[in-house]
Design a protein that fits this description.
The complex is a heterodimer of chains A (280) and B (73).
Chain A lengths: L2 H5 L6 E4 L17 H14 L3 E4 L1 E2 L5 E2 L2 H14 L4 E4 L8 H5 L10 E5 L3 E3 L3 E3 L3 H14 L2 E6 L2 H9 L9 E6 L9 H9 L6 E6 L4 H10 L3 E4 L6 E3 L2 E2 L2 H14 L7 H8 L5
Parallel strand pairs in A: 1-2, 1-12, 2-5, 5-6, 6-9, 9-10, 10-11, 11-12
Antiparallel strand pairs in A: 3-4, 7-8, 13-14
Chain B lengths: L7 E7 L2 E10 L4 E2 L2 H7 L7 H4 L21
Antiparallel strand pairs in B: 1-2, 2-3
The chains are: A alpha/beta (280), B alpha+beta (73).
């Protein structure tokens, strides 16, 4: 992925992160939590240009759920509501035991993609999501066994080191997701994304997330550098300062920017071809 | 053995908000709890409210520290 990809008008993949697992309706009254709400948001985002839907599961009271059963409910509802979008299940979690982290991979059918956190990160004052090498390898092994494409979550430069060290173990093209924000996530600045991209082998496809107010500028920069983008309420609740967003609005804005910059928005079929996915 | 936080309540109303299904509410901060933090409140996954929650306080000190609570959770 290079600036030449931008000049060549390479299709841009838009991923919609609909709900996440950190905040809920206490932070945004319309944040989707139930399978039905998530499915409705998914359909709107697909229509607005998202070809990948990043899914978390929640309990009835909005708290996080990792069970395959709950992910199955969410995935079934989303498949029913959408046409052809790629489903990507989250395996991330603060302190959930390793066995639970595998559960989102065990739906029927398996998701086409799943997230794979590449190292530790802090949450709040005293929580750490450890993401040991042992867990990363274990999750990757199950993904490979089930034909699931991993999205390597690179929260900081240490995670980039970890990713580059094992890149040969991943099927082409390896797909790295760069996250920018606070805490143990990389400082959100254009130069930091430039450094990341310069460190990548050309065979790698990359995606970019900017948290909160950094979603818009980091999205734009990723598109200019030939990368892909993730937007949605999981990462950013606001359309602009003081104005709450919807998932659909955030996807539609990313699609407009992409088209204006000469990067056509990738269809689900183009996304599958770009990332080497197995199909629904 | 960790137990559920004694300051945890499940409420349908509070902090200027209301929900159809009761949600985790912290009586120390007087606000609803983010879903990820609710793992701490409920002592899930080996977490212990007394050591892992920055808002956990002994009941007798709540009143004294009422001005220091952080509602941004």
């Amino acid at each position: 992925m290079t600036y030449d990809d931008y000049l060549d008008g390479k299709p841009a993949i838009i991923t919609a992160a609909l709900t996440g697992g950190v905040h809920g309706k206490e932070a945004h009254p319309d944040l989707p939590e139930t399978p039905e709400e998530i499915a409705s948001a998914a359909a709107a985002c697909e229509a607005a240009g998202a070809s990948v839907l990043h899914l978390h599961a929640r309990r009835d009271n909005g708290e996080r759920a990792f069970s395959a059963e709950r992910f199955q409910e969410v995935a079934d509802a989303v498949r029913e509501a959408t046409d052809d979008a790629v489903l990507q299940h989250s395996t991330g979690g603060t302190a959930a035991p390793d066995a639970l982290r595998h559960e989102p991979l065990r739906t029927d059918p398996a998701p086409e993609m799943a997230s794979l956190d590449m190292g530790p990160l802090n949450r709040y004052d005293r929580l750490t999501s450890e993401n040991t090498r042992e867990l990363v390898a274990s999750l990757h092994a199950e993904m490979r066994e089930r034909g699931i494409k991993p999205e390597l979550e690179v929260f900081n430069d240490g995670h980039l080191n970890e990713s580059l060290a094992v890149l040969d173990e991943f099927e082409d093209p390896p797909y790295l997701n760069f996250l920018f924000g606070g805490g143990t996530t990389s400082p959100p600045h254009p130069r930091n994304l430039l450094n990341r991209v310069e460190a990548l082998p050309e065979s790698v496809e990359f995606n970019v997330i900017g948290f909160g107010p950094h979603q818009l500028p980091m999205t734009t920069q990723s598109l200019l550098l030939g990368g892909h983008v993730r937007v949605g309420l999981e990462d950013n609740r606001y359309y602009e300062r003081g104005e709450l967003a919807t998932n659909e609005q955030l996807v539609a804005r990313a699609a407009r920017i992409s088209e204006e910059l000469g990067r056509p928005v990738a269809t689900p079929a183009e996304t599958r071809e770009l990332l080497g996915l197995r199909g629904r | 053995m960790a137990e559920t936080c004694p300051h945890l309540a499940y409420r349908e109303e509070g902090d200027g908000k209301s929900f159809e299904t009761a949600r985790a509410f912290c009586t120390v901060t007087g606000s609803f709890v983010q879903p990820m933090r609710a793992d701490v409140c409920n002592a899930r996954y080996g977490l212990d409210p007394a050591t892992d929650c920055e808002f956990y306080v002994e009941p007798e000190s709540i009143e004294d520290e009422s001005d220091a609570t952080d509602a941004d959770r």
